[in-house]
Amino acid sequence: MQDKTRTEIEAEVFRRLLQHLDERKDVQNIDLMNLAGFCRNCLSKWYVTAAANRGMELDLDQARERVYGMPYPEWKRLYQQEASPEQVAAFNASGKEPGSSDA
61 FRET partner, CA 20 to 30 A, in 37, 45, 48, 52? Predict the structure, then answer.
């Protein structure tokens, strides 16, 4: 597979992932962290890093707006729920940091 084609396919997959997450606002970031080791905020941080690796400056708020489909404070207000004690305990037991490179 040519690099250009691979990049186009990967970009399409990323856009589909963002669409899927947008359609599943009921899935909280803590759920994603506990099950998969990454969340929407991780994707935002990876987006900033990828831009920086290409010499582009992109701040976290801009990346979050791309990933969340709206400004992050608005998404939090509309969709974020308080994590349950069980969810927090499961996250803490995992020993992983949000957005870690091994996620």
Answer: 37
For tokens 């701040």, what's the residue? 59
Over the chain (103 residues), what is each successive 10-residue block's mean pLDDT?
94 97 96 94 97 96 97 97 94 74 41
Predicted TM-score (pTM) of the model is 0.85
Report yes or no: 33 and 91 within 8 Å, Cβ to Cβ: yes
CA 20/CA 30 separation, integer angstroms: 17
Whether 95 and 36 have beta carbons less than 8 Å apart is answered as no
- How many whole angstroms separate alpha carbon 54 and alpha carbon 33? 27
